[in-house]
């Protein structure tokens, strides 16, 4: 979550998300029109592009050098692409192709997958756990889990009754979140076992189309956005496991009685009682528009980012201690050049609430992974900070080296 890639009718653009106030454009290409897929390998120079002009062809570029590393053509339109430092996954409607990202060789083809018209799939960004998740059924909410390293099926998870709409791994590949087309319940499972860990209720009044599901880097929060005006952020915690023994008060006694009573209720009823509500929310000033969210740490503070299909980026402050309504602090135009008048008008920077300032002061209790900055443009750590060992593939991936990939011609 340290950079942003957008495809446009004229090409694609890459931005760096290192500052709230200023959106830095890293690269712009107008060589290929009508780009509908653009995936960047973290903050490296490798970018994968698919255009409506050739929807069956994947182009892999080194954008700093302006060179094409390779291109591959497939039997039908490419619906989505996922990549980490070990694997590159290409998803078609009824098949999935897994490439070795070091030399782009095709390692495995998963044929005859259930019809997947949206190209729904998720790949763990932690290459040590290169798990791949995709729909195991077109009619039910079954998740097929595949090990991208051993190239073997890991397990099948019966996640929902209805067809799947969203899938997302956490940063380490140890958890998988899912939502169905109904969009009312979001579940989190352990990986690779598939046990249900959490269940969150997004809402009961209406069905929604969940367009984005994402964990924070420290796996403490899970964000869900849809075609409605509300973005929900859930906190992953088991209060009953972590809190100390309650004092013998009336409320504490009743709480234990209620918890015990749920053991005797039908599973559906007790499950409803145990589901958590959203920890924090955002009220967007629009609805019905496709959007993608991210939970990131920018300038050492937790932020919620919302990017919309009309070309805007909204940045909100997230209070990690008290939650509640997130505060909009910046709106950027992704289609303009530089800082537009619109950006100046939307310089929304109200003073932060005192409780949030106090939270920031207590940040020493937050795991260090939550402030991991990601990769700089040259593939190294920013400001000398240590990147966790699992972020490196076997052998350094140096995408600015002349010999970064063997010559591939296809």
Plain-language structure description:
A five-stranded mixed sheet has the order 20-21-22-23-27, with no helix packed on it. A four-stranded antiparallel sheet has the order 4-5-6-7, with no helix packed on it. It has a four-stranded antiparallel sheet with strand order 8-9-10-11, with no helix packed on it. The C terminus is likely disordered. The protein is globular, with a radius of gyration of 22 Å. The protein is built from five helices and 28 strands. With 410 residues, it is mainly β.
**Whole-number mean pLDDT:** 79
Strand order of the largest sheet: 20-21-22-23-27
Radius of gyration: 22 Å
Please state the structural category.
Answer: mainly beta
In angstroms, what separates the terminal alpha carbons?
32 Å
Strand content: 35-45%
Sheet with most strands: 5 strands, mixed
Q: What share of the residues lie within helices?
A: under 10%
Number of helices: 5
- Overall, the morphology is globular
Regions with pLDDT < 50 over 5+ consecutive residues?
239-255, 267-274, 338-410
Number of strands: 28
List the helices and strands and how they pair.
Blueprint: E1 3-7, E2 12-16, E3 24-29, E4 35-40, E5 46-51, E6 54-62, E7 67-73, E8 80-83, E9 87-91, E10 95-100, E11 106-111, E12 122-123, E13 131-135, E14 141-147, E15 152-160, E16 164-169, E17 175-180, E18 185-190, E19 196-201, E20 210-215, E21 221-226, E22 230-235, H1 239-242, H2 250-261, H3 267-274, E23 280-283, E24 291-298, E25 301-308, E26 312-317, E27 324-325, E28 327-333, H4 341-345, H5 354-361
Parallel strand pairs: 23-27
Antiparallel strand pairs: 1-2, 2-3, 4-5, 5-6, 6-7, 8-9, 9-10, 10-11, 12-13, 13-14, 14-15, 16-17, 17-18, 18-19, 20-21, 21-22, 22-23, 24-25, 25-26, 26-28
GO cellular component, one term: phagophore assembly site membrane
Membrane topology: Peripheral membrane protein
InterPro entries: PROPPIN, WD40/YVTN_repeat-like_dom_sf, WD40_repeat_dom_sf, WD40_rpt
